[in-house]
Amino acid sequence: MSDTAPRPTLEAVAARAGVSRATVSRVVNGGDGVREPLVERVRRAVEELGYVPNQAARSLVTRRHDAVAVVVAEPETRVFADPFFALQLRGISKELTARDNQLVLLLTEGRDDHARVGRYLAGGHVDGALVFSLHLDDPLPGLIQRAGVPTVFGGRPGWSNGTTDVVYVDSDNRGGAREAVRYLADLGRTRIAHITGPLDQTSAADRLDGYRDVMHDADPKLVVRGDFTPAGGERAMRELLDRCPDVDAVFAANDLTASGALRVLRERGRRVPEDVAVIGFDDMLPVAEQTEPPLTTVRQDIEEMGRLMARLLLRGVDPDPAGAAPAGVVLPTTLVRRASA
Length: 341
Hints:
Elements: H1 10-17, H2 21-28, H3 36-49, H4 55-62, E1 67-72, H5 76-79, H6 83-98, E2 102-107, H7 111-122, E3 128-132, H8 140-147, E4 151-154, E5 168-171, H9 173-186, E6 192-195, H10 202-214, E7 223-224, H11 230-243, E8 249-252, H12 255-267, E9 277-282, H13 285-288, E10 296-299, H14 302-317, E11 328-331, E12 334-336
Parallel strand pairs: 1-2, 1-3, 3-4, 4-5, 5-11, 6-7, 6-8, 8-9, 9-10
Antiparallel strand pairs: 10-12
Helix pairs in contact: 1-2, 1-3, 2-3, 6-14, 7-8, 9-10, 11-12
């Protein structure tokens, strides 16, 4: 075993910089009132000695933890299997890292987890929370409100009971769905079906509304409920073909659902796009470019959504006196044409 060198102290930094301990403390903990030449001397001494500030002591001075909770209202089996969450977490992580903040990931499997998350947020461990994939009956918004931490939500706040000051980031789910279905109709398809996502989530409900905006008089049998998973897409596609064997197009609520639908169409001997055209939603490249055939889909910038959520949260933690952050941001979507439609 090798000896471990003692960690540099504030006193050592003060001695190296030729200033008082109090001056070093103000500089490393973000305090004001220190002249710039002294600040530079302290920073140089910190770098030379490899001094690492004590986070607990720093928090007492700044009232900041430099940590943000990311709360995903899904079980871990779903989070780690769905590329959507990886892309959103990557965007969040990039933004937090650039601002020297730590990401604390919290997942919820059931009611006990909701209570645990509520207690953690109320305990003053983080400066704020980023929350996404909420369902309409989820208790998390109420728990977070009681915890009193700044929060940004991913997705339109259909669960907010009309509250107008909820900060959120979303994509134009309804407009993107409308564009996809209109494109299928322009191709001459007349039996256009929709496999939905879980309708207790606003993104899925908005995409269903976009489908209905175009297909005003669609046969109700052409709408089948899915769950944003490949297995859900397979189940829904089998049900759809049994109900409506003459279906000639499918708008799936996300790319994973579309990938499952494509597998079933292949099993049933339906050619894509000749017999049945298929469009997804998300444009997750690990999925959309690997399906057979490659998937026409609606692109939303998932990573940018994550970055923007983090940016808005940090703006709320350190408010800019020049102006308040917007309550809600809706990012545009784009139809990406590949071989499936």
